[in-house]
Amino acid sequence: MKQKSENTRLHYDTIIVGGGQAGLSVSHNLQKHGIDHIIFEKHRIGHSWRNDRWDSFCLVTPNWQCQLPDFPYQGDDPQGFMLKDEIVDYVEAFAKKVNPPIMEGVAVNRVWRGEHGKLHVSTTAGEFSTDHLVVATGGYDIPIVPDYAHSLPKHITQIHSVNYRNPEQLPDGEVLVVGSGQSGVQLVEDLHLAGRKVHLAVGSAPRSPRMYRGRETTEWLFDLGFYQLTIDRHPLGDEAKHKTNHYLTGRGGGHEIDLRQFALEGVKLYGSMANIDGSILEFSADLIKNLDDADEIYVNIRNDIDRYIAENNIDAPIEPPFRKVWEPELDPTRINADAENITSIIWAIGFRPNYRWIELSAFDGRGFPQYDRGVSNVDGLYFIGLPWLHTWGSGRFLGIADDAEYLADVIQRKLAVKAVAEL
Predict the structure, then answer these.
(1) Run of H or E including 185
(2) Number of structural domains, the chain?
(3) What is d(CA 334, CA 38) in angstroms, rounded to the nearest whole number?
(4) How far is residue 250's CA from residue 185's CA, in Å, rounded to a whole number?
(5) Of 347, 362, 396, which one is at a domain's C-terminal end?
(6) What is the spatial distance between Cα 29 and Cα 422, in angstroms, rounded to a whole number?
(7) What are phi and psi of 353, to 5 degrees?
């Protein structure tokens, strides 16, 4: 890789902030166009995969979906699910192929519009300017912990999922996981398999089958066109960007996760977390609804696949109808953490983006960027690597290539128009 060790340039046609798979993919396409650019990466390539995941972390989508530009998965287990270290190796191998102009260990502190319309970029390596700025930092900047968490007694350990590594790091006793998105349910399984007593505050996340009618479900969904579904065609519109992904896991070769089965095995389930008052933990009375809603999505996915099989006369084995394996007798709304011997809480309720360093009018009232296929309403500003940037596949290894190619083409066209205007 072309590692820049010092500030030898002041202006670049394009600056990319973030050297993960999204930023590297943009660099790959900019190089094809011969566009002058540089990447600023706050840490090092592969940092979030290497440093912000638990020990047993693996992909929830099969390896065949790893389709970075001109660099598809080339291993011998396309139906498998790469472990954390294998993901790091894949991203680092892609970076070696791209050989990007990158400055690692360089943070971008501020971006603003300067004179002559240039975007000014202040970094820990100096001051730069650019015509086009691509933000490839992702949306997982600030771990979400509710304000009422401060009232939890100090003898109860609390951490965010980004800081969880393994069951051994937690004190003896029982564990409450708050949040049933992809991370939350996988941490529950990690703790449960290690023999820990686990409690789970169940949120509104949907779930998905892993295998159905003789085939991995993501293969069916790919054939059905779900990954190519664009945000403008989604019934929820832009609100889809803020919805939680379906939960399932790639652990042990991949399987679906049924929270009702966890309950049969001793995991205690509650509704969504509502408040903490000392050792008293309060939950909403929505456990039954949240379980039923997740199952409804699960069944809908199966029904979509059934229709596709019937319409295309596909020979596929028949599956028995879905049935609930457990129903809660109660929907408890208050427990005493000390009485339940809960000694630690893991917050798995997501992240908020932090774009405060971008001093441009490109965000909505909640601080989320506004764009069309990653092209901001602010001239020269772009985003990539976010869920539903354009399609359901955006933000995943599967969809980044198309998004990066599109942005590079937009930048190339704008630079060409500028060059003609300056003749």
Answers:
(1) helix 182-193
(2) 2
(3) 53
(4) 12
(5) 347
(6) 24
(7) -75, 155
Domain that holds residue 95: 2-141+353-421
Same domain for 43 and 150, yes or no, is: no
Q: What is the pLDDT of residues 363-389, one digit of tens each?
A: 998 899 999 999 999 999 999 999 999
Indicate the DSSP class of residue 6: S
Q: With beta carbons less than 8 A apart as the criterion, state whether 12 and 34 touch.
A: no
| Pairing outcome for strands 37-41 and 101-104 | parallel
| 0.85 exceeded by pTM | yes
Q: Which of 96, 48, 98 is nearest to 69 (CA)?
A: 98
Q: What's the rounded Cα separation, in Å, for the pair 397 and 276? A: 38
Helix (H), strand (E) counts: the chain: 8, 24
Judgement on whether residues 35 and 83 belong to the same structural domain of the protein:
yes
Q: What is the pLDDT averaged over residues 199-210?
A: 98
C-alpha 16/C-alpha 41 separation (Å) is 9
Residue carrying structure tokens 């730069």: 128
At 347, is the secondary structure helix, strand, or coil?
Answer: strand
Q: Render 363-384 in DSSP notation, one character per residue.
A: B-TTS-B-EETTEESSTTEEE-
Same domain, yes or no, for 251 and 336?
yes
State whether residue 290 is helix, strand or coil: helix
Bridge partners (DSSP) of residue 363 are: 369
Q: How far apart are CA 399 and CA 401, in angstroms?
A: 6
Residue 287 and residue 166 share a domain: yes
Q: How far is CA 171 from CA 166, 267, 396, 414, in A?
A: 11, 18, 35, 56
> Do residue 258 and residue 151 come from a single domain?
yes
Q: Which amino acid is at 20?
A: G
Q: What single-letter DSSP state applies at residue 64?
A: G
Question: Do you know the residue count of the chain?
Answer: 423
Q: Is the pLDDT of residue 8 over 80?
A: no
pLDDT tens track for 269-327: 999 999 999 999 999 999 999 999 999 999 999 999 999 999 999 999 999 999 999 99
Report the C-alpha dihedral over residues 378, 127, 38, 6, rounded to 10 degrees.
-170
Note the pLDDT tens digit of each residue in 61-81: 999 999 999 999 999 999 999
DSSP state of 392: T
CATH number of the domain within which 115 lies: 3.50.50.60
Diameter of the chain by CA atoms? Answer: 77
Q: Which residues pair with 215 in a beta bridge?
A: 212
